[in-house]
Amino acid sequence: MIVFGIETSCDETAAAVVVGGRDVLSNIVYSQVARHQPYGGVVPEVASRCHLEVLPPICEQALTEGGLDWSRIETVAVTRGPGLASSLLVGVTAAKALSLRLGVPLLTVSHLDAHIYALFLGEDAPDAAAVCPLVALLVSGGHTRLIRMDAPGRMVVIGGTLDDAAGEALDKGAALLGLGYPGGPEIEKAARGGDPEYVRFPRAYPEGRTGAGGRDGGPALGFSFSGVKTALRYYLADHPGVLGQHLADVAASYQAAVFDVLAERLKTAVVAESARYAACVGGVIRNETLRAMLRGAAHEAGAQLLLADPAYCTDNAAMVAGLAGSGWPCVRAARLDEGIVPTGKGL
Ligand code: KG4
Ligand code: ZN
């Protein structure tokens, strides 16, 4: 099945063509970073207006780079949520129009499920059935979750965050450090050569399985990242001028506090679920330091590690089109009167 995918849940405007759930013919991502940079973060109104402006040419480009014309598209797929309501609306409306115009079905996917599906894109990707049950750690700008996948597309959330997501903690931390937006890659750059033990920022291991429907009596798999950000704020107030000499050390220490918790919780979840595979997906998984730490954690837990290809970690439409073409049970056939789902609940 040849699927045309659209993704507009936040500040990337993306379109892609994927065949048979795996073969990526094109994957075009327009990053709106420059438009939001003056404000130090994503402005929803700016994002939706930008989607409206750039989505048509991005779609044309995805089609052309895929070497196809519209008559070859068999299905249109779009992210229905979670994400910014006004941004989702642009993608969903465009996808509905495209499916009507082409006379092909419209499928909708959860953005979070699509992040997990990123593991299975491309020729070298593993077979999903062969690596289940697996435990996935999803770390994006808006979500930090541990998910157990029992069979392809059958996912249960087993851990989540009480407050900020890990990506959000990096974005907010970067602002405190005087770095640009988005903060994750800026902190990664600033931390190069820095000493991750220069400052011991707090690591939070909250009780329970926050936001989760995991098995009763299991270990704590929740996250909390708002405290580490506050700790950075107080540290900087108590050490004026420290960034002049020690920006790399402070950035490396802050990053390490966030990443330690992710690696530790992944290890706990993998052991608790007796999973043979540990998978890591989402924008923050682009970080090379984190990738190395996760390799160590999976090894200690006795699991094989699957890391999403960096190109498919941050938001893209290949993961949307791929998932839609996979036949996984979490993919939905859309009704034309169906709306968007701006929250992560029930996905
Ligand atoms: O998955 P994603 O593209 O969008 C959401 O669904 O939220 O993730 C965006 C997040 C941002 O917080 C960004 O700072 C972070 O991923 N990120 C990184 C890196 N690249 C993106 N964090 C750490 N290191 C990176 N290299
Ligand atoms: Zn995302």
Order of helices and strands: EEEHHEHEHEEEHHHHEHEHHE
* Uncertain ranges: none
Q: Give the rounded overall mean pLDDT.
A: 94
Shape: globular
Largest sheet: 6 strands, mixed
Say which molecules are bound, naming each kind only once.
Answer: 5'-O-[(R)-(carboxyoxy)(hydroxy)phosphoryl]adenosine, zinc ion
Q: Tell me the span between the first and last alpha carbons.
A: 24 Å
As a whole number of angstroms, the C-alpha radius of gyration is 20 Å
What portion of residues is helical?
Answer: 40-55%
Strand content: 15-25%
> What is the spatial order of strands in the main beta sheet?
3-2-1-4-5-11
Oligomeric form of this entry? Answer: single chain
**Count of DSSP helices?**
11
Protein model, in words:
- The chain has helices at 33-36, 44-65, 85-102, 111-117, 166-176, 183-191, 226-238, 242-272, 288-301, 310-313, 318-324; strands spanning 2-7, 12-19, 23-31, 75-81, 106-110, 134-139, 144-151, 154-159, 277-281, 304-307, 332-333.
- By secondary structure, the protein is of the alpha/beta class.
- The strands form two sheets. A six-stranded mixed beta sheet has the order 3-2-1-4-5-11, with helices on both faces. The protein has a five-stranded mixed beta sheet with strand order 8-7-6-9-10, with helices on both faces.
- The longest helix is centred in the C-terminal third of the chain and has 31 residues, at 242-272.
- The protein is globular, with a radius of gyration of 20 Å.
- It starts with a strand and ends in a 14-residue tail after the last strand.
- The model has no long low-confidence stretch (mean pLDDT 94).
- The structure holds 5'-O-[(R)-(carboxyoxy)(hydroxy)phosphoryl]adenosine (KG4) and zinc ion.
- Residues 111, 115, 140, 283, 315 line the site of zinc ion.
